Amino acid sequence: MATPLSLATLSDLPDDVRVPSYDRADLSPGIVHIGLGNFHRAHQAWYLHRLMDAGQARDWAILGAGVRPADAAARDKMLAQDCLTTLIELDPAGKSAEVTGSMIDYIAVADDNAPLIAAMSAPEIRIVALTVTEGGYYQKDGTFDAAHPDMAHDAAHPDAPRSAFGAIVAALRARRAAGSGPFTCQSCDNLQGNGDILRQTITGLARLSDPDLAGWIDANCTFPNSMVDCIVPATGPSELALARDFGVADAVPVTHENFRQWVIEDKFCAGRPAWEDVGATITDDVHSFESMKIRILNGGHQVIANAGEILSVETIAGCMEHPLIHALFRKVETEEIVPHVHAVPGMTPEAYVDLIETRFANPQIRDTTRRVAFDGSSRHTGFVLPVIRDALASDTPVEGLALVEALWTRMCEGTREDGTTIEPNDPIWSDLQAAAKAAKDRPAAWLDQPLYGDLGRNDRFATAFDRWLRMIWADGAGAAIRAYTA
């Protein structure tokens, strides 16, 4: 029988499950992390856990936090098992399990975020980190969206904010008043220049209610850019069963691939753990690493996920097994994305495509096309459209990238080719679906959306997009992909 996971039962777990070597009673908090999803627990929390296992960073433990009503239920599950997480590595050569303990508490979730503000105001907190998804930074056309209702609310109610960013501003206001000093604000989301974007959001929000505080934050807080990488599927019944197969009854286990990467800019105003001692890369050139990863891996996900949804291929590994979708991936990556990616120390863009191809094809990772296709309005604008702009500027091919956008359009119409329904899968799904339906007869209707900016007026791209979308509707996605890859 599986053993319920808790601090009291760690010694009862099977011998092949790695458990923390440190005593949790020896840990004290140094980090608040907002957004306790699977990715954070498989990535940033793991790096800190391994440092603690090595006898370091005992004063850098994580206090978890959330700002959504749904986070309260997640908090209950985590507290019931003392904030421990079972990580299950899915390697084609064999599976392994490890329990991590770097998170020591989960802050109470409240509408006014008062418990979160109080926790971040404590002098011992030196880093506040976030994983809140690419579209969660209140950006519009590359600038801070001060008119968003959440930001307007937080500016009008700075002591009772509804967003994570409003809570951060409130905590920094309290720290300045108390003389506790600043903390580092650390984005761990898949955004190019994520630290710069976080600075823009925090200072932009602060400026709406307290310009002097905004100036203090800008002058004293640090916002390091970083690149994060690990494929981490969502948790469902099969993941729960997999944990039980290892002898662990974990309500929120996490599966992940046998690869991690974390590249961090060394800008920490109040110190940091020595993450480089457990494999992280500390560098002044995060941009080159993140550009390679965002364009080849994250962009590659968008190349195949929409085609997979249309053709009823349920997983990313399944897409890589599908001859047409795999061929689409390979040709778009090597011919249309790689030319706009620079090498980094130890890795060429071509070699990175080979690595990503292997990782995507890992049959042990049940990463769904639906998860990868989620929030395309943020992911295409962040991962694909910048490459299209570079290709147009340098007069290199865009046919495959135009096909990728046409496939996304077809997916947003809301049905698969087998007639089944694609459920809403984007924060602005209704707008996307309306544009996709209009584009069935007039492809330009899709490109007229604000997210494309001036791309819809570029004849080379618009002409290719028009041709591919009409072919998809007339002959099917497979025929269009076949025509491109032939």
CATH topology of the largest domain: Rossmann fold
Mean pLDDT: 96
What's the N-to-C terminus distance?
54 Å
Q: Note the beta-strand portion.
A: 5-15%
SS class: alpha/beta
CATH architecture of the largest domain: 3-Layer(aba) Sandwich
Number of domains: 2
Helix count equals: 20
Q: Describe the biggest sheet?
A: 5 strands, parallel
CATH class of the largest domain: Alpha Beta
Give the overall silhouette. Answer: globular
List segments where confidence is low: pLDDT < 50 over at least 5 consecutive residues: none
Radius of gyration computed on alpha carbons: 23 Å
Features:
single chain, 486 residues, alpha/beta, Rossmann fold, N-(1-d-carboxylethyl)-l-norvaline Dehydrogenase, domain 2, five-stranded parallel sheet, four-stranded mixed sheet, 20 helices, 47% helix, globular, oxidoreductase, Mannitol_DH_N, oxidoreductase activity, acting on the CH-OH group of donors, NAD or NADP as acceptor, Mannitol 2-dehydrogenase, Mannitol_DH/Oxidoreductase
